[in-house]
Each structure stands twice: as structure tokens, then as C-alpha cells.
Design goal:
The protein has about 130 residues and is mainly alpha-helical. Helices cover about 65% and strands about 0% of the residues.
Length: about 130
């Protein structure tokens, strides 16, 4: 918040990307505020996929911990954390990929693309009653 007040954070996605990558993605919503519809759809998809992955992960947490302990086979804590991170991200991806066409249709329904007016067409006048 302090960066936005001092105009250090720009509102363009290209400017905020290096900051976003180094801060774990928490500035991604700021980057899509003044973007086109496709960027907003991408941001919403990212949010929905993260929330879905976390919810599924929390439901399966005890099983996940046991699996990481089994896979790590007595490794140091750093290696266990790295294994958990890699396996969680891979499993999240594999769970989300089959639903991408459905999610795309849903987002296109919620946020349809703005179509520019064709040349030579007029916008109907409204009746100021």
C-alpha cells in the first residue's frame, strides 16, 4: 500500500510483473485493474485455480503430509518442503487442466468481449421519457 501512495507501483501489467514475481504473485490483482478484458479473465482464472487448489489441498492435507513423508524418505526439512511445493503445484495443474474449456466458457459468459461498432452503423437513440 505504501508503494501505491508514493506512485512506485505502476498500473501497467508490464511494469508490475518483476515486482509480482518476486513477491509471490500478491500484486497480480493490481496489474489487471486497468487492463483489457482478456487480462481480467486471466487474472480471474488464476484466482479461481489457486482457490480451488488450496481448498482441495486442505481437504486432503493429512494424506498429502503422509505422502510427502513417504516420498522424502527421511530427507532434511528443506528437501521435504521442496518436494511438497513441487508435488502440490504439479497436482494442482493436473487437476485444473481438464476443466480449462469449461472455465473459459464460463469466463466468456461472465465477461464477454467488447465488440467495436462496425463502420457505417449507428447506435440507436434512446427515448428520454
Amino acid at each position: 500500500m505504501r508503494y501505491a501512495k508514493r506512485d512506485i507501483l505502476a498500473t501497467r501489467p508490464a511494469d508490475i510483473s518483476p515486482i509480482d514475481e518476486n513477491c509471490g504473485g500478491k500484486y497480480r490483482p493490481i496489474a489487471i485493474i486497468h487492463s483489457d478484458r482478456q487480462a481480467v479473465k486471466t487474472g480471474i482464472f488464476h484466482l479461481l485455480s489457486n482457490v480451488a487448489s488450496i481448498c482441495i489441498g486442505l481437504l486432503c492435507f493429512p494424506l498429502f503430509v503422509r505422502f510427502i513423508e513417504w516420498i522424502s524418505n527421511g530427507a532434511q526439512m528443506e528437501q521435504k518442503i521442496a518436494n511438497a511445493h513441487m508435488i502440490f503445484n504439479t497436482a494442482s495443474l493436473l487437476l485444473i487442466v481438464p476443466f480449462i474449456p469449461w472455465i473459459e466458457k464460463m469466463l466468456n459468459t461472465w465477461l464477454p468481449s467488447k465488440t467495436p461498432a462496425q463502420p457505417g452503423t449507428t447506435v440507436p437513440a434512446t427515448n428520454p421519457v
